[in-house]
Amino acid sequence: MPAYYLEALTVALGLLLLMVEAFGPSHSKKLVGFSAAAGLTFILILSFFAIGPDQAKEGSTWETWELSKFYSFDPLARFYKGFALVCTILVLLMSIDFRSVLSRFTDHPESESGTGEYYCLPVFACAGMMWMASAKDLAGAFVALELVTITFYILVAFLRRNVGSLEAGVKYLILGALSTGFLVYGIAWIYGTTGTMSLVGLEGAISNLPSTTPLLFGIALILIALGFKVGAVPMQVWIPDVYQGAPTPTTAFLSVGSKAAGFILLIRFLDPLLQPGSPVAPQVLLMLAIMAGATLIFGNLAAISQSNFKRLLAYSSIAHAGFLVLALASWKQESDSAIGSVGAVSFYLATYLLMTLASFFVLAQVRIQDGSEQIDAFNGLGKRNPVLAIGLTVVMAALAGVPLTAGFIGKFFVFSLAVEAGLWWGVTFAFIGAAAGFYYYFKIIRAMWWESPADNAKPLVLPQITRTCVVALTIAVLVLGIWPQPILWLLG
Amino acid sequence: MLALLVALPIIAFIAILAGAPARQAALGAGLANLALGLWAAFTWEAEMWASSVEVLAKPSLHLAFGFSDGMSVIMVLLSVIVTVAALLSGRAPAGREILYYGSSLLISAGAIGAFAATDLFFFYAFHELALIPTFLMIGILGRGDRREVAWKITIYLGFGSVVLLAGLVWLANLAGTFDIPTMVAAVKNGSLVIDPAAQKGIAALLIVGFGVLVSLFPFHSWAAPAYASAPAPTSMLHAGVLKKFGLYGLLRIAIPMVPGGMNDWLTPLLVLLVGNILWVGLVTVSQKRLDLMLGNSSVMHMGYIFLAIAALAASYQGPALAGALVDGQAVTLSSVGRFTNDIAGPAAVLLMFAHGISIAMLFGLADKIERSTGTLELTDLGGLAKAAPSLAFLFGLVGFASIGLPGLANFAGEVMVFLSAFKNYDPAAGLGPVQIACICAIWGVVISAIYMLRAYRRIFQGESVRATESSLDLTPADRIPALLLAVTLLAVGLFPNLLLSLFK
């Protein structure tokens, strides 16, 4: 099956769900969410049978089709398509359990009639992310990126009777538009300098430039724009407020799906620029190193003083972006014996997905049942729901990078790469960041186990979906911590 | 087989989570491990103990266990003995059995895993696995300012682990492998040459990283409050076993892989270890509570083991350069470096073992004293020997062991440490820094005698006071763990060769 069917099917699924939403029963929209998750699961299975243009049967239209200039399908693309699908499925499941809050802040607080689109929009965002994984042309990448971003404008501001959500929506819209401007302007400079928008042709086009300055200017603009997607300095300012204001499933989606999509695009964009012999490689690496160092310091140090769990996760998301950019700044090609930058970033993101989504699942339930997202709300969780507390303890330890959890190995790869590349400042900042991470993630563990629950606290009962997902994600975090090989198999 | 020793406590932990009776499951795993550990002590050279499973293809990472040498055997033996004693000693608060026994099992599994791992990655990882239940136990079930203390130890040990990790990553990057025996062999046969600047940097990171974990002066202030606050099995397991991880790491990683770097830092290390012995020793003398006194004394005794490590590092003779003149003859091949002090390593390991057993027993008995009298304030106690003669006898025995009375294991260890410091002493050249440090360190024995005997007198002798009048002696069930440890102390004290014969 040609790989682009996957995106086509995803978009078709989204359209179909919109129809069901519009003409189906209005009192319960749960069914839309379940159908979306089921449909995406089906597409996820299909993705293992998809083939790229290079594997197409001879003489098929697929081989000569114009689209294949814009579309590649390698193991990396398959990995990131799967990543987008898994992430979207989990976010949809989270949204289903979150619907009581959604309905309270949409049109009719008593009914779910205003919540149906919340299950359809992630499907479109997913299609955009999947296309980004395959993009080999800046124009195509731009269109896919905008599909994701515009969907998120709606998702962030979805609680339209909640001021926080609206404020977040406005902030995201303004900064998102700004970053789009940077991106288009950067693409224009690169096209003007090299005469090509194809990422495949870029490597050849930059080798004989009379001057690299305009090219570097364009690259800097694009790095800034992609920094917006991945949450790296200097475009990180929107993250805390938007994460805090947006509905929790959207925050989870932003912090995992959107970030990963940004990274695959960054990888595709950097790959031709950092090939051996590239005239701009040292400058690009320097830009990345500066980004990484600033992001690590900002994210980790600002997270220390947070008292709101969602905001803490926002800063932690910036901090993790810092580690990921550091891996890219220590650029190394994949080899048979050692993992390269691309592998390290992909591995890190896969573990990050498990850990972050598990924490958002828990956060969403605490938000629903206690009405608070403060760290205080987690006080005594060890007594109120021990299983949940053990799960969150494992996840927080993994985010901090405690060994034998999945979070450690990703960080380990990053450190090894940075040491090997001789980025001593980056290593120092990363160590400061990791040490700070211990502090702020353990704050949650401390609240859960060492503090007593509030006087009026009730046991926290988890809905079936959330319980299953949290248990499954926690087990995955532990298993992959001891046996990380499966992720490398998926990477091909 | 060695993997089974690590897996048994974890399996018991999962069984407890799934609803098995906590105490029975934990004890079952502990006793099975004790039997396996004793068996291993006799057959450790057999192939069957080693195992290796590849968990990551690139970089090649193995979940590998094996006894590299006698040192691992002794440390595993220490772990299984103290684990059984710790599980038998404490009493879980009602309703908290799962946490209590589960955490103890995880600490034990982590310690055994770290001592048995032959892969750098899992060597580090298992130690971290053991730290988290330690933090939780202190934070949830501790006494006194448990939250502040638990937070303090979390930050201190987290910091130490991060610094240590930096050193290990650096080392592994240079070596290009995680397999510890391969790395050591490569350094020994000269195929892996780490340049002096890198050696110095790595050694600094390892000394500080491992040092924080072993409460090296001045990074020691987490230890005494943590042990005083922790529930009995946690202090027994941490002070007795887990803390030895740092010393074990210095001997297993730092000394063989960056010997030149360790030599560079000799003088600072000597100053710090004398700080451990004299400064912390005087702090120990001034303690008014038994648990804080024991906690500080455990910090103090680490100084002796550091002394042996320093003596070993000092005896390193770096590789001679090709073409250099030795006795008027040009050396044709660059020989590799070697250590001329062959007793410092066994001395350190013997004292680690002895100290682990004795401090675990002291913490176990201190817990008994608190349960029977309700206090550990030295001024509130007195005359306990009348009401509890067997407790008094056992405490006296282990107290003397801790001071270093001949016939008990600590004596053998301490004497060997002092001898090792003078091993390469050349009267013509005068006293070297190691010898000077050793002369300072010997005063630690006097300090030990002062605080231990004074504490013994305050608690057990004199007139009975209200707290001790009606207190109960050890029940037969209480005696089992104490006797297990006491017999070990005596056996190793009378026949140190039981352990020393494991070194070839």
Molecular structure report:
- Helices cover 74% and strands 0% of the residues of chain A.
- By secondary structure, chain A is mainly alpha-helical.
- Chain A has a domain at 292-492.
- The longest helix of chain A has 32 residues, at 163-194.
- The model of chain A has no long low-confidence stretch (mean pLDDT 90).
- By secondary structure, chain B is mainly alpha-helical.
- Chain B has a domain at 271-318 and 336-504.
- Chain B has 22 helices and six strands.
- In chain B, strand 1 (51-56) and strand 2 (61-65) form a beta hairpin.
- In chain B, helix 2 runs antiparallel to helix 3, helix 14 packs antiparallel against helix 15 (344-373) and helix 15 packs antiparallel against helix 21 (476-494).
- The interface between A and B is medium-sized, with 35 and 35 residues.
Q: Give the overall shape of chain B.
A: globular
Instruction: Walk across the major sheet of chain B and give the strand order.
Output: 1-2
Measured by DSSP, the beta-strand proportion of chain A falls in: under 5%
Instruction: Give the helix proportion of chain B (percent range).
Output: over 70%
Mean pLDDT level of chain A: 90
Low-pLDDT segments of chain B:
none
Spell out the helices and strands of chain A N to C: HHHHHHHHHHHHHHHHHHHHH
Terminal Cα separation of chain A, in Å? 19 Å
- Radius of gyration of chain A, CA atoms, in whole angstroms: 22 Å
Strand content of chain B: under 5%
The low-confidence parts of chain A are: none
Q: Which two chains form the greatest contact, residue counts included?
A: A-B, 35 and 35 residues
The main pleated sheet of chain A reads as: none
Intertermini distance of chain B: 23 Å
CA-based gyration radius of chain B? 22 Å
Overall form of chain A: globular
Count of helical regions of chain B: 22
Run of helices and strands of chain B: HHEEHHHHHHHHHHHHEEEEHHHHHHHH
> Could you state the oligomeric state of the chains shown?
heterodimer
User: What level of helicity do the residues of chain A show?
Assistant: over 70%
Number of helices of chain A: 21
